[in-house]
Design goal:
Distance between the termini: 18 Å
Number of helices: 5
Mean pLDDT: 90
Shape: globular
Structural class: alpha/beta
Strand order of the largest sheet: 2-3-1-4-5-6
Helix content: 25-40%
Order of helices and strands: EHEEEHEHHEH
Number of strands: 6
Length: 177
C-alpha cells in the first residue's frame, strides 16, 4: 500500500482522481478540474500496476497528521505532497516530512516528495525550495529511497512520471485473478 500524506489543501484528493483517470487514458485531458472536498479520514483507491498486480493508494487527511504513524506498518511506499505556493505551509510540511522520515517503521519504504502547485505564480522557485527544505541534505541522510518531483496536479504536469513511480515502487504484489 502507498500512503499519500501532506498538509490540508496540498492536492492529495485531486492527485488520486487524476491518477485514476490517467491509468485509464494516458492521453487524457486535464482541462476540467473535478471537484474535491477536504478529506476527513481516508480515501482508498486501487490502480493497476500491471496485468497481474494492483496498487492500493490510501490518502490520509492532513488533519490526521498526529495519527499518520498508525498507518505506517501497512505501507511499502509514501507520496508526501507539499504545496509550494504557500511559504508558511512549506515550513510546516518540512517538519512533518522530517518527523515521518525519522520513523523506524519507514526505514525500507520508497518515498516520493511531490512538490505540487508549481504552475501558480506564487510558487516558490525550486532553488529556494531546495534551500528551505534542505533537500540535498535530506537526500544524503534519509534511510529511505527518496525521489523529489515537481508537478501541477491541477494541470496534469508531471503526472505521467508520478504514475510510473507509483507502478514501480508501490505494487501490492497481489494477483487480481
Amino acid at each position: 500500500m502507498c500512503l499519500i500524506l501532506g498538509e490540508v489543501g496540498v492536492g492529495k484528493t485531486l492527485l488520486l482522481k487524476r491518477l485514476q483517470k490517467l491509468q485509464d487514458d494516458t492521453k487524457c485531458s486535464f482541462k476540467e478540474v473535478p471537484p474535491t472536498i477536504p478529506t476527513v479520514g481516508t480515501n482508498l483507491t486501487t490502480l493497476n500496476a500491471d496485468k497481474k498486480n494492483e496498487v492500493t493508494l490510501r490518502e490520509l487527511g492532513g488533519a490526521m497528521a498526529p495519527i499518520w504513524q498508525t498507518y505506517y506498518d501497512d505501507c511499502n511506499s509514501i507520496i508526501f505532497m507539499v504545496d509550494v505556493s504557500n511559504p508558511s505551509q512549506v515550513s510546516a510540511s518540512t517538519l512533518l516530512l522530517l518527523t515521518m522520515l525519522s520513523s523506524d517503521q519507514l526505514q525500507n519504504v520508497a518515498v516520493m516528495i511531490l512538490l505540487n502547485k508549481t504552475d501558480l505564480s506564487s510558487s516558490i522557485h525550486s532553488k529556494e525550495l531546495k534551500y528551505l527544505m534542505n533537500i540535498d541534505h535530506l537526500l544524503e541522510t534519509a534511510m529511505q529511497r527518496v525521489t523529489v518531483m515537481e508537478c501541477s496536479v491541477k494541470n496534469g504536469v508531471g503526472l505521467k512520471e508520478v504514475l510510473v513511480w507509483v507502478r514501480e515502487n508501490c505494487s501490492d504484489g497481489g494477483d487480481k485473478t
